Amino acid sequence: MRKRWVYLTLGKNIVAMVVVTKEPYGETEPLCWSPIKKNISDDDYVAGETPTVEHAYRNITSSMQADPLEISSPKLALDLLSTAVRLQNMPLVKQCIEIIDKQLDPSILISVMSRLSECTSQRRDNYEPSAPPIIESENRGNIDWVVNQIENLRHNCLLEIDRYADAILKDLFFSTLPYMDVLRITTRDSLQVSSETIVYSAIMKWAHAECYRRTLQPHLTNLKAVLRDLVHAPRYGLMTKKEFTSRKIDGEKGPTRSGILEEKEWRRILFFIKEKSKKRPVEELPFYCSRPRGRGCEKPKLLSSESARRASDCTTKDLECSTSNRCETIFLNIVTCWATIFD
User: Fold this and answer.
1) Cα–Cα–Cα angle for 60, 61, 66, nearest 5°?
2) Per-residue pLDDT tens for 145-188?
3) Cα gap 72→313, rounded to integer Å
4) How far is Cα 260 from Cα 316, in angstroms, rounded to an integer?
5) Cα dist from 3 to 19, 21, 35, 47, whole Å
6) How far is the C-alpha of 221 from the C-alpha of 227, rounded, in Å?
7) Cβ neighbours of residue 130 under 8 Å, at least 6 residues apart?
8) What is the pTM of this model?
């Protein structure tokens, strides 16, 4: 009966060393073991006799690549996404993103944005799994594919937020989003809000929630500190005089009373609003505060059959819009020509 030493390892550390006798394979042979050549003599170790941990791990997980998990719930897909990214399981990441993209509706948009921010906020080192990747692929050690997939889903999510802007900004959970997501959403030219007061109310409620999370008193200094560029996210120049000078907007102090704008700023904005209402020429406001928002022309990334359908709808709408614009241009040209002839 032949004896040999077998080293059980965890990562690069040896956690146990046992003696194994030569028994029939399949009953006592360990599933995975990683021999260390410098500690084992050539007599005791024969190359290729026993598989390494990495080799065995690939064999175990190869079936997962051929038969991926079935996921139908977008909430479950969100829960699995972070784990899939951490384990560098590219097929599972793609499957989770496809499921989420198929069911992007107002009820999950905020959750999706929040989870995507959690994934991208991890450092590069955190993407390195403690064990070999759950699925072997040529992307091992490269997180670019993760970033691209997440950014594509975020792009589609923002397009849907544009459509349901009023509902999203009024949602209580909007205040739980991180700063960058709030800034991305509220500064979009394509955000389809019925009034800029909704944007103003949303950033003020978010600022109070952020102060609470940081255990800060919601004093003016702290509010301005957490708001940063969000101070100029609302398009103040698009408000009416009554809205801009309101004492309260949805329970929050109005723009001229909250103190987040300097007196010089809000007086300039008020002058702009008055002059615009009288249809007089006036210099545009800085920080795009007077730029109108409109329906965007960005197309969704093709992540699922649903995003392909949405992209097709966008193409149809763009074509209709383009045709309408051409008709209007032709009509105006004809009128101009007739006016010139008769003059």
Assistant:
1) 120
2) 788 889 999 999 999 999 999 999 999 999 999 999 999 999 99
3) 25
4) 43
5) 6, 5, 15, 17
6) 10
7) 11
8) 0.71
